[in-house]
Amino acid sequence: MSHLPPSPAWPDPVATDPRLMGWMQGSPPPPDKLVRFADGSRMRFPMSRWAFSHMREFLPTAAIARGEEPPPALPRRPQPLDKVESTTMHGERLTWPQALLRTYFDGVVVLHRGAVVHEDYFGEGAPRREHALFSVTKSFVGLLAAMLVHEGALDETAPVPALVPELAGSAYGDATVREVMDMRIGVDYTEDYTDPAASIWAFSRAGGMLPEPPGYTGPHSLAEYMVTVRKQGEHGPAFAYKTINTQVLSWVVERAAGRRLADLLSARIWVPMGAECDASMSIDSHGAAFGGGGMSATVRDLARFGEWLRTGGVPAPVLADLRRGGDRAAFARAEMFRATLPGWSYRSMWWVSPEGVLMARGIHGQSLYIDFDAEVVIARTASHPAASNVFNDPVTLPAFGAMARALCA
Amino acid sequence: MSHLPPSPAWPDPVATDPRLMGWMQGSPPPPDKLVRFADGSRMRFPMSRWAFSHMREFLPTAAIARGEEPPPALPRRPQPLDKVESTTMHGERLTWPQALLRTYFDGVVVLHRGAVVHEDYFGEGAPRREHALFSVTKSFVGLLAAMLVHEGALDETAPVPALVPELAGSAYGDATVREVMDMRIGVDYTEDYTDPAASIWAFSRAGGMLPEPPGYTGPHSLAEYMVTVRKQGEHGPAFAYKTINTQVLSWVVERAAGRRLADLLSARIWVPMGAECDASMSIDSHGAAFGGGGMSATVRDLARFGEWLRTGGVPAPVLADLRRGGDRAAFARAEMFRATLPGWSYRSMWWVSPEGVLMARGIHGQSLYIDFDAEVVIARTASHPAASNVFNDPVTLPAFGAMARALCA
Question: CA–CA distance from B234 to each of B174, B203, B328 (Å)?
């Protein structure tokens, strides 16, 4: 725990309830209550507490369509879980509701053996309102890739340019599909959300997720950006978590399957799992899905997805490979994660605990937690002020673990 | 029929099938197959044949949410209707399928006594894929206004500034709500889609439906545009069909109901009618709905809406008032419509035939046709090359009439 960053004094979660603050209330909202794309306010706390529940109102999106059949029933066995307690990595004792508030949750669904034992919302969170999933999206893309590999439709040992010749001159020219799937890529691309010069911002501008500054002459699509990135170091040895890798994998997956990512997600996951609502995927100005982080979905559907995965939604070898995890030594060398995720690893865009718990994780606290032994799935959407999960993990991970233990006790 | 414009030689509807033409196929699509927002191609034929089925991929949208319950069953009684014939206003004999193709249909659902007797799709049209409704949206807004008037929540005799003080200095400063509902407004605003200088383009740029040209200094929201329009002539005497009137009515309705338009459409129409899919509403950069024409919905849900209206979805006096229609003499003086809609009128944003048929109509052929006597509802989405319905009405209206007669024969 020695590398754990100190916990700053965060704003009050209750006082930043977007309903209380009045974001986007009024017709039209007064200027000081507007949340906009053009001024970047949608990504800034506390405006983000409204925006993350309304991402399609800022960006072009493609539908990830549910099927025509009614969704399978989700039985409800509410349990008195408010007294479940956990100890944060900073040593504080919190009840489950306190831990949720402390991590600025917008929605939470806990399933035990397929039944909803707890469901709650805060602020703009609502049962049928989708919420930004950010990098939880990556785990969907990684799962699609793993399914295609299992089916023989994608060769994980192939070099990326075998599928995407456009990337031959880029950092990915000599990378294998598997190296991309596991984020073992040496690429000159940075993703520190606190650094205004980080590559993620140029990537985001190219993808239309940020407004173009006046006189902008950079790339106008994700593909145009991806072909420009250069190699730095070697592929293979290091685990380096970078959104561009998933964007490259999305391109690979689309080429392997011959379909647009949103359609593929619909056909291979959203329809088979019996989603209640359509989800959405933000797209760039050329129609390419932001596979690195562009999904929004309801927290209920996120939980359904976890339950589907837990109970045989994908072939057993695909799931077993995920749960075995990736290279723990490589993961442990990644400064950013070793403090809060000791013993974890990363495989096919999933986070894997030493005990085989699977997590999908997105900035600002988006989480899907699948504990196979406890038969527990926890989906939580959030609008934490900090992008990096290193600031909510000290509360989140002990709370999720305590909840799983309480349910299987 | 003497004022009927000649029928130009239109492109071949089958050869402009967007699947054949390959729009947006490939990852990413090659440059000559891209349909984009920035270059305006989404609104140009034949790219529009792809784009109208994918509007949310170009624009920010708010969800119009369906309810949690499964949609009521829509019984199917398919009938051999392919031989139903009609004579166009230009004297040509066409079968039902020929008339559909000739009007560049993308989807069609025909209900008789609540059962689906015909359903078909073309090109990018699909049962669960929403399609741009354009000014069909106006009839939804007009219906909401009429419902609020009936409930006493909106005074149709009130001057617009009583609800929207911001409009006191505009053309609407001395207009009543009812004059707006019936498009009896004298306003310096033009809407000829073939005139590049028409006001509709400045309105669209303000609303974010068109890209801002470099150095743009105009209004950045629909509200900012609306306050600038000036009076021209008098309110009351003339019927003048202008999208800005519905945009003003949307503002009035939001203020009267105290809710955002998309939420109001959901709560008052989409949930009660038992929609199968969410619909979407394009919004401006300040989150305001484009009530003048921003909805997309599936053609099935459009048909369900017609059936709900036909069978008591709204209070009987509201429906009776619509069906009585508006001022036929005023309507007959409107050059644009008298050739194809003789004897019709306009009431609360609905088009009303001399026989009490109700229509909701949008550019490029979007249509909802409700024939109460025949107990027939026809919903059709389309991507006709011409914006103005004067070019498809000569085929559409005889075909719809023949279908209704055939079904109740």
Answer: 10, 22, 18
B286 in A contact zone (CB under 8 Å): yes
- Structure confidence by residue, pLDDT tens digits, A146-202: 999 999 999 999 999 999 999 999 999 999 999 999 999 999 999 988 898 999 999
Residue B151: Cβ within 10 Å count? 12
Q: What is the end-to-end Cα distance of chain A in Å, rounded?
A: 27
Please list, in sequence order, all residues whose beta carbon lies within 8 angstroms of the beta carbon of residue B19, skipping any fewer than 6 positions away. Answer: B123, B124
Q: Which fold has domain B86-154+260-407?
A: Beta-lactamase (3.40.710)
Q: What is the Cα–Cα distance from A182 to A330, expressed in whole angstroms?
A: 11
Write out the H or E segment, with its range, that includes residue A70.
none
* Contact predicate A152/A382, CB 8 Å: no
A33 and chain B in contact, CB less than 8 A: no
Tokens 């039902």 sit at which residue?
Answer: B96
- What is the number of helices (H) and of strands (E) in chain B? 14, 13
Most A CBs within 10 Å: which of B19, B23, B25, B27, as the mutation test of the A interface?
B27
What is the crossing angle of helices A316-324 and A136-151, to 10°? 130
pLDDT digits (tens, 9 = 90+) for A265-277: 999 999 999 999 9
Catalytic residue ranges of B: 135
Which of A19, A23, A27, A36 should we substitute to test contact with B (largest number of B Cβ atoms within 10 Å)?
A27
User: Alpha-carbon torsion A9, A14, A20, A23, what sign?
Assistant: positive
Residues contacting residue A220 through CB under 8 Å, at least 6 positions apart: A206, A284, A285, A286, B38
Residue B9: strand, helix, or coil? coil
Distance CA(B25)–CA(B50), nearest Å, equals: 10
Residue B53's closest CA among B378, B296, B392, B302?
Answer: B296
**Chain A residues 37-66 within an 8 A CB cutoff of chain B:** 37-38, 54, 56-63, 65
Q: Note whether A372 and A366 are within 8 A (CB).
A: no
DSSP A235: S
DSSP letters spanning A377-399: EEEEEE--SSSSGGGTHHHHHHH
What is the full DSSP assignment across A114-172?
A: TEEEEEEE-TT--TTS-EE-TTHHHHHHHHHHHHHHHHTSS-TTSBHHHH-GGGTTSGG
Of B53-57, B127-131, B197-201, B380-384, least confident by mean pLDDT is: B197-201
Question: Given 3-state DSSP classes, what are the helix, strand and coil percentages for chain B, each rounded to the nearest 5?
Answer: 35, 15, 50
B-chain CB neighbours of A251 within 8 Å are 27
Cα B398 to Cα A20, B62, B338, B395, distances in angstroms: 55, 36, 15, 6
Average pLDDT for B12-23:
97
Closest of B394, B367, B399 to residue B383, by C-alpha: B367
Residue of B nearest to A67 (CA): B128
Rounded CA separation B61/A280 (Å): 11
Predicted-assembly ipTM surpassing the 0.90 threshold: yes
Residue A150: how many CB atoms within 10 A of its CB? 16
The DSSP call for residue B71 is: P
Number of neighbours of residue B298 by Cβ within 10 angstroms:
24
Please, which pLDDT band fits residue A8 given cuts at 50, 70 and 90? confident
Query: Which two structure tokens, joined as six digits, stand for A126?
Result: 């609502």
CA A299 to chain centre: 12
Using DSSP's 3-state secondary structure scheme, residue B295 falls into strand
From A285's Cα to the closest Cα of chain B, the distance in A is 6
As assigned by CATH, the class of the A86-407 domain is alpha beta
Q: What are phi and psi of B40, to 5 degrees?
A: 75, 5
Residues in A closer than 8 angstroms to B41, CB to CB, are none
